[in-house]
From TrEMBL:
Domain SGNH hydrolase-type esterase: 17-190
SUPFAM superfamilies, per the entry: SGNH hydrolase (SSF52266)
Name of the protein in its database record: SGNH/GDSL hydrolase family protein
Transmembrane domains' residue ranges: none
C-alpha cells in the first residue's frame, strides 16, 4: 500500500473547530483550500499535526451561521467525534441583528459548552472583538461587551480555556482585516493562529505576518473609500439580513470528518 493510500486515522488526538465565518476562515483567501478559504483554525491544526501526527482535525464552521444554528448543527457532530480539543466561537451574527436577546442566547451557549466539556476535551472559547474603532459595527459594542461577560463567566465556571479577542488591541489596526472590514484578512488569521497556539501552550513555527504600511489618505480619499466599502460590502450584507439569506446557505463544512490531510 502506498503512502497516499494509507488510512487517514483513527487519531489519538482530535481537534474539532466550531462556529461561523471567523472559524471557517473567511477573509483568508486560499483557492486551494475547501470553500476557498484557509483561516486561523486550519493554521493551528497544521501546526499541531506537523508537531505530532497523532492529531486529526475537523472544521464544521460555516459562514453566516447564527448561534442557535451553529449549536444545533455542529455540537452533536462534534461530540460524536470524541474530541480532545474543541474551539467554539459563535454569536457575532446574532449581535449584529436589529433585535437580539443576548442573555437568552448565552443560556443556550452555556448548555452547549457543558456538552463539549463533558466529552473530556479541552474547550477553547473566544470573546468578541472590540469594535470601538469600526464604522457601523461600533454601534453593537455594548452588546458584545455583555456577550463577553457571559463567555468569561462560562469559561470560568466550566474550566474552559479563553482566547480574549476583546483585549487584543493590535487587531484594531485595519491592516489585519479583509477589505470587507468584517473578517480578518490573511495577516489577521495568521496572527490569530499564533495567539491561539500561545494560549494552548503549543509550539509555534508560524512566521509572523508581514504588515505593510498603508499609503496616507486625505479626507476626500477616505470618504471615497468609505462610500465604496458601504456600496460593495455593507449594503449586500444588509440585503442578506433583510431577505433572510446567508452567504453560507449553499456551503458545506470544510472538513466534516477528522483528517490529517489539510490543504
Amino acid at each position: 500500500m502506498s503512502a497516499a493510500d494509507e488510512l487517514d486515522g483513527p487519531f489519538e488526538k482530535r481537534f474539532v473547530a466550531l462556529g461561523d465565518s471567523f472559524t471557517e476562515g473567511v477573509g483568508d483567501i486560499d483557492p486551494s483550500s475547501p470553500n476557498a478559504v484557509r483561516g486561523w483554525a486550519d493554521r493551528v491544526a497544521a501546526q499541531l499535526i506537523a508537531e505530532d501526527p497523532r492529531w486529526g482535525y475537523a472544521n464544521l464552521a460555516i459562514r453566516g451561521k447564527k448561534l442557535p444554528q451553529a449549536l444545533d448543527e455542529q455540537i452533536d457532530a462534534a461530540v460524536a467525534m470524541e474530541p480532545t480539543l474543541v474551539t467554539l466561537y459563535a454569536g457575532g451574527n446574532d449581535i449584529l441583528r436589529p433585535v437580539v436577546n443576548v442573555d437568552g442566547l448565552m443560556a443556550r451557549y452555556r448548555h452547549a459548552v457543558r456538552q463539549l466539556v463533558d466529552t473530556g476535551a479541552q474547550v477553547v472559547l473566544f470573546t468578541g472583538f472590540d469594535s470601538a474603532k469600526a464604522p457601523v459595527f461600533n454601534l453593537t459594542r455594548g452588546r458584545t461587551a455583555i456577550y463577553n461577560e457571559h463567555v468569561r463567566k462560562i469559561a470560568d465556571d466550566l474550566g474552559c480555556t479563553l482566547v480574549d479577542f476583546w483585549h487584543m488591541k493590535k487587531f484594531q489596526d485595519w491592516r489585519y482585516w479583509d477589505v470587507d472590514r468584517m473578517h480578518l484578512g490573511i495577516s489577521g488569521h495568521t496572527a490569530m493562529a499564533k495567539e491561539v497556539l500561545a494560549v494552548l501552550g503549543a509550539k509555534d513555527d508560524i512566521p509572523a505576518p508581514e504588515i505593510e504600511d498603508l499609503p496616507p489618505q486625505n479626507l476626500v480619499e477616505r470618504t471615497a473609500g468609505n462610500v465604496t466599502w458601504t456600496r460593495e460590502h455593507v449594503l449586500p450584507w444588509m440585503k442578506r439580513r433583510l431577505t433572510g439569506t446567508s452567504s453560507g446557505d449553499d456551503l458545506s463544512p470544510k472538513y466534516p470528518k477528522l483528517t490529517s490531510r489539510i490543504w
